Amino acid sequence: MTEPVITVRHLDHFFGEGEASKQALFDVNLAVGRGSLTILMGPSGSGKTTLLTLMGCLREVGSGSVMLLEHELCGADEALRVDLRRRLGFVFQAHNLHDSLTARQNVMMGLQVHGRGDPARHARAADHLLGLLGLGERLHYLPGNLSGGQKQRVAIARALVSNPNIIFADEPTAALDKVSGMAAVQLFKELGRTRGTTTVMVTHDPRILDLADRIVTLEDGRIVRDHPGPARNEPLAAPV
Ligand SMILES: Nc1ncnc2c1ncn2[C@@H]1O[C@H](COP(=O)(O)OP(=O)(O)OP(=O)(O)O)[C@@H](O)[C@H]1O
Q1: What pLDDT score was predicted for residue 105?
Q2: Are 36 and 215 in contact (CB under 8 A)?
Q3: Residue 69 CA, ligand 1 centroid: distance in Å
Q4: CA proximity to 155, closest of 140, 137, 136, 173
Q5: Which residue puts its alpha carbon closest to atom 2 of ligand 1?
Q6: Which end of the chain is less crowded, N or C, counting CB atoms within 10 A of the terminal residue's CB?
Q7: How far is the CA of 121 from the centre of ligand 1 (A)?
Q8: How would DSSP label each residue in 154-169?
């Protein structure tokens, strides 16, 4: 594996406190290599989203260890987590686009949270990604005039435009047809190859599995399988 950008050790997670407390993750251990595409699978309620949000600094890590980009998240303060989140891209099912902004402007929002910059350069970066995702003709459309799949692709472009170190995606292709779903995941892979961008993705989409470097399956809050995906380009074992 390339050097890990995420290392999870003995991670437990509980929702609620006292008698109402419910354990959602049990002793999860995982290392994710730079530039790889890791898929998290498993039945509903198995803990995929919980794990993704813990690794993505969207929840506090209370037990065990998560090293993210060389920083420990267990006990990390909000300032560090905010700082780290700036280096991450998120694609979630509820795409949270701004209804009053065009596709281009929504994607540019992904850059504006990083501070001021040259608006013309931001627009060019947004247009480039929207073009790669097949929305070059829809730059000036408002979300209300886009289909569910087109909105999802705008959300993907917004997550990618800041050139994040790691992309966390929860069912990013659920609303997409086969061609645009594959194109989106190919783009994640391409970014992995050319820029070392790492992707961790929850999906039930069997069409995507062929593109995975790694497939991790959760059940009842535990990793029950962790194996190389078909696209893994390293040899499975060192030759002897
Ligand atoms: N905010 C919460 N409060 C209490 N329990 C929660 C909360 N979020 C998740 N859970 C519970 O934690 C467990 C894991 O949920 P999680 O959403 O991580 O599963 P999942 O594998 O992502 O499921 P799905 O595929 O349906 O999204 C479930 O039993 C769920 O009910």
Answers
A1: 94
A2: no
A3: 25
A4: 173
A5: 15
A6: C
A7: 40
A8: HHHHHHHTT--SEEEE
